[in-house]
Predict the structure.
Amino acid sequence: MRYKHFKNADVDVSSLAIGTWAIGGARYGEVNEKDSVDAIHYMIDNGVNLIDTAPAYNCGISEEIVGRALKGGYREKVFISTKFGIGDGMDKAGVIPRDASREACFKECEDSLRRLDVDYIDFYFVHWPDANTPIAETMDAMLELKKQGKIRYIGVSNFDKPLIEECLKTTMIDAFQPPYSMVNESEKELMKWCNDKGIASFSYGSLGSGILTGAIRSIPNWDPLDFRFTFYDFYKEPKFSKCMELLKTLDKISANNGHPLSQIALNWSTQKDYVGTALCGVRNVKEATENCNAFDWTLTEEEIKIIDDKLKELNI
């Protein structure tokens, strides 16, 4: 496993992190808890030292599974990252509420500590911006939690540059969580800016919600409400066809170097200086093994150029 130093937090974190959106089970296909826990244990045993979750991942179920998985000495081996600001997900009307108020910050932190069954959270993120709450109020609340020892590092997720700059007027930001992968470089410039400020980027969607594994070559017949349809656009035209063209290039590289597409995608993204760690969801030990093995080797400069040239051509 490779590690990167997070400047503001002053910690070394594995280039691969465990993402847990899928293991919550809601609208993300079938999931088996034992398989998920086994996968988490495998990744930690093989050097991964960050696990990311959130209350919104199926009404806190993901946090509860993570809490159970970290029993037996595993808690001491990892940094836990979780979030607040959208409660436990959608309300009855199907709307995702946003509340990053002081009250919500304190309440959600206590709820997460209870579900995770831990005394403190390492990285605590505002999940999404809340236009109705002054950002200074949110940051002040997080600073108070930090002083109380309930959280160690402050992070923001899905924020734009002006809002992060507002945060920095109140406190140092340790981490930023944006989407980033071969098929989504929309936040690249912001990630570079954050890196210059010592803010580590936890990139999510590192495998494009599975499309970069190469396992899916036609638009799937999933439930229309599956998050892979509703949250991402990789499985919709015109982006789907462009992704398939990219896979043809990755197939050739894979045939030449012997590494599966998922490893190529993870290797590519984590070689970027501005990517602190790549969050990657796993459901079983097979997937965990394949992802961990992405860090036993390195793409050549020529291979990276081939990929970058194709991405520029496709403009995904």
Summary: The beta strands are 3-6, 11-14, 16-19, 50-52, 79-84, 121-126, 151-157, 175-177, 200-203, 277-281. The longest strand covers residues 151-157. Residues 49 and 78 are 4 Å apart (CA to CA).
